[in-house]
Amino acid sequence: MTIDELRARAGERKQTCAQIKKMIVSRLDLPIEPEWISDDQPLFGRGLELDSLDVLELYVAIEAEFGVALYDSDMSVFGSVSRLADSVNPALRTAQAAVA
Amino acid sequence: MESALTPVHPEGTVYGQVLEASVPLRYTTTEAEYEAIRGRAAVLDLGGSRLVQVRGSSAGDFLQRVLARDVEYLTSERSTTSLILDETGAIVDQVVVWGREDGAILESSCGAGTRLIEYLRSQNADEVEIVDRSDELTVIAVEGPYSWGVIGRLIDSELAALPLDSVVDTQWDGADILFGRTGSSGEYGYKVVAAHETAKKLWTQACEHAVPAGQDVLELAMLEVRQPVVRHEAPAGTGVLEVGAGWLVDITKESFVGRDAVLAAFAEQSGPRTIGFRGGDAVPAPGTRVLAAGQDIGEVVHAVYSVGLGAALGLARVESDLAAAGLDLTAGDAEIETLTSPYVSPKSWSIPIV
Questions:
Q1: Record: contact A80-B226, CB cut-off 8 A
Q2: What residue of A is the nearest CA neighbor of B269?
Q3: pLDDT tens digit string along A14-33?
Q4: Could you tell me the pTM of the whole model?
Q5: Are the C-beta atoms of B85 and B79 separated by less than 8 Å?
Q6: CA distances for B69 relative to A20, B39, B350, angstroms
Q7: Which of A38, A41, A43, A78 to mutate to test the interface with B (most CBs of B within 10 A)?
Q8: For the segment B60-85, what is each residue's pLDDT rounded down to a tens digit?
Q9: Residue A91 DSSP SS3
């Protein structure tokens, strides 16, 4: 890949991540700017401190926003915004994510 | 600084220096200890961390000012993990804050305790009492997908099911201990703060139920779930956003040391960012240049061999528009691929506490 192709690929992931962050902040009514959430920060436990009720809310939101049903997914899908991006935009999926 | 538990460590323990602390790096092999922390239960001597008690009538105000996370409502039954920043927004340390009725106990990162105490004292306009309790207290952790079983057998099964970041003052073997559900590997985790002699007994008994694991495996497990290891990721002057540790900062909090600098950096949205990578036969050294299509875009910050991935795993600090997963880059002579976090999914995420 050329540097421009790499930048474009990175840009596509960042765009999907930005869309996910906006959705999370909006649907869960978080008092922060979406950009404050980093692509790699944990979403549960100490990260964004989401709980199981938040997950249910996100299932519905993801299906509405991306047309992807994650109801039977294992929790690692929510490991980070970037990991979630692999699920809602399969074009981004890395070999690592496929194995996980 | 040497751990109070050194006399009861197994024969053959390999020690190493982490900043000011001499700590157990390995007790047996990295592979065996990794299997314990990711597959069963590991017991960890965290005696390289200092325990700093902050107390007094102004302790609450002082802590709220120096900690980047909101501790206004932190009771003696809760803990939290927070960054401490200087005025420029650079990371001083990452601490576990154990809420206490008259303030808090701050657990420093490994080997960084003296620096933390000096910093706290430099900020002490409130005339709070800042006491290093490490000469009398130490910390033991139990982490792993079945660590709750160890806690049940060793202390109390009810404590094993506490919500994350809960803290309980209780007793073990007739002695007062501070028990918390907290950890850093992404697996179920618990910590006990106890007097040295009590801790020695607890450690010895814990080793009958769990595998002792050293600093090497703990830091690997932290890296795999993107839990910052400050000494590797934040050399002097490194900011929160560069490290990607904004989640350890409550930016909605009205005021804390470093807030203005963090907000300014956030508004600029410039500078390098950190991304995880895997690949290469050898572990690249910090400072190894990272290239994208032959162009220099940054450097390796920290890398180790990941038992879980069976490959080198590391963090690189690169131009922000290329700090994304799924890119094929090079680090030195090695081909690497950038990753989504967590790099290894904790087994605890799919195992209930029973």
A1: yes
A2: A35
A3: 999 999 999 999 999 999 99
A4: 0.96
A5: no
A6: 24, 32, 29
A7: A38
A8: 999 999 999 999 999 999 999 999 99
A9: helix
